[in-house]
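Lab meeting, item 3. Inverse folding demo.
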């Protein structure tokens, strides 16, 4: 089967390489020529553990091209994996999806199955089907919704061993084709109509976001009443109806998915006169949570003017160089506006951060250099380098050892009685 992947972001490259791994011949197309050139030279445009090796190992079956006519000409199945960024009103911008589908329809020689992997509002698949198939009587297009559930940092394993493959189809033929594509994975299928498949994606991501905001609110209350949120989460998580994952309290969720998908579903509900109050609450809690450490810091300093602030971690989570919606992007501007000297360290994310802040902040080579002379330290990402560091470095290097840990990196035993002030989320020393 001749498969083309459109879009070489996280979802596109990982889907492409995993389909090549199970034996398909896959062409990955992107409008961005520089990105394609890099991939042709086996330089990964994103940081994703294991990706480079897998691309190299599957070189024979995997190609990267930036000519869409060539990419689509003989395709039997095209996976659309382009972005659906947030518009100003919170709704999803479908421009890239529609543009890509339009090009497929124009270029493909015969019947083709178009699989929408991008996260799209409910009704998009039906709409595409109507628009495309009404205009074409020579070629027939099957439109499938096949949402993606991979997480950055564990994307390959999440794809090779997915918890489920959701197929939103409106014909037995489309289901048969997709089952043929995915056969090599031997995973559980959920086969439904397109609207339900589109909804499964939003409902899943928004539920996880809700779970995080819920535990963050519980953590904020624990801070006041002296309970320990980690023990609370542990005690809750043993109940299989609750489950122990996504109950890690912190300074909120970031990334390219949860913030965008909660707002998009909320917008869609409002548009249909049906308010999603729980999702609205999750969004509001998260906005506040991202600046929780700034609020905690105000206890020690009225202003950050003239202070040296050490920031450990910039990316929205460990294992990625992605900064989208990361708490660092909320916290650092506040510190700079207030007149602080900001020193940062992140094992992978600094090059991307330099594109946003080329000169206003100091980029350090290691944790020790970042802490040197600092008046306060914010921990924003739980990188292994940070979680495993020797905490006695805080009082040793800092001018004023106040550590605000937004990701609960250290056990309370590890920091208790050490010569520094330590605050975390939902736990008291
Ligand atoms: C998320 C979903 O987990 C994937 O299933 C989904 O496919 C993907 O979005 C998507 O729609 O493409 P991802 O954004 O890569 O994946 O990252 P997660 O690991 O889910 O983390 C998201 C954010 O939640 C991070 O900022 C993380 O720090 C935060 N988080 C996660 C918590 O604060 N607490 C937790 O317990 C778990």
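The presenter then showed the designed sequence:
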């Amino acid at each position: 089967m001749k498969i083309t992947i459109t879009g070489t972001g996280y979802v596109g490259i990982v889907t492409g390489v995993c389909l090549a791994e199970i034996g398909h011949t896959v062409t990955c197309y992107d409008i961005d020529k520089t990105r394609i050139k890099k991939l042709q030279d086996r330089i990964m445009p994103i940081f994703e553990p294991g990706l480079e090796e897998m691309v190299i190992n599957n070189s024979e079956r995997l190609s990267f091209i930036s000519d869409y006519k060539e990419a689509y000409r003989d395709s039997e199945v095209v996976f659309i994996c382009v972005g659906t960024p947030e518009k100003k009103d919170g709704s999803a911008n479908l421009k890239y999806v529609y543009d890509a589908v339009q090009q497929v329809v124009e270029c493909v020689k015969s019947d083709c199955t178009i699989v929408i992997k991008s996260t799209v509002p409910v009704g998009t698949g039906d709409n595409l089907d109507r628009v495309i198939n009404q205009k074409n009587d020579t070629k027939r297009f099957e439109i499938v919704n096949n949402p993606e559930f991979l997480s950055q940092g564990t994307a390959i394993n999440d794809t090779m061993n997915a918890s489920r493959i959701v197929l939103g189809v409106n014909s037995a033929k489309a289901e048969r084709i997709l089952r043929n594509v995915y056969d090599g994975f031997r995973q559980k299928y959920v086969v439904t109509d397109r609207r339900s498949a589109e909804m499964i994606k939003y409902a899943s991501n928004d539920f996880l976001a809700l779970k995080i905001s819920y535990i963050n609110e519980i953590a904020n209350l624990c801070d006041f009443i002296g309970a320990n949120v980690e023990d609370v989460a542990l005690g809750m998580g043993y109940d299989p109806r609750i489950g122990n994952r996504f109950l890690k309290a912190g300074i909120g969720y970031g990334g390219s998915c949860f913030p965008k998908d909660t707002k998009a579903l909320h917008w869609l509900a409002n548009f249909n006169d049906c308010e999603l109050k729980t999702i609205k609450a999750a969004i509001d809690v998260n906005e506040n949570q991202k600046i929780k450490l700034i609020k905690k810091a105000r206890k020690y300093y009225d202003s950050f003017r003239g202070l040296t602030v050490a920031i450990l971690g910039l990316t929205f989570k460990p294992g990625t160089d992605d900064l989208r919606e990361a708490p660092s992007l909320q916290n650092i501007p506040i510190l700079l506006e207030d007149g602080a000297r900001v020193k940062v360290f992140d094992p992978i994310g600094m090059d991307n951060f330099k594109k946003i802040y080329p000169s206003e902040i100091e980029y350090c080579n290691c944790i020790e250099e970042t802490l040197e002379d600092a008046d306060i330290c914010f921990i924003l990402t739980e990188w292994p380098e940070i979680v495993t560091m020797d905490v006695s470095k805080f009082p040793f290097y800092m001018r004023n050892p106040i550590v605000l840990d937004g990701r609960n990196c250290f056990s309370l035993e590890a920091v208790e009685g050490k010569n520094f002030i330590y605050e975390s989320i939902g736990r008291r020393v």
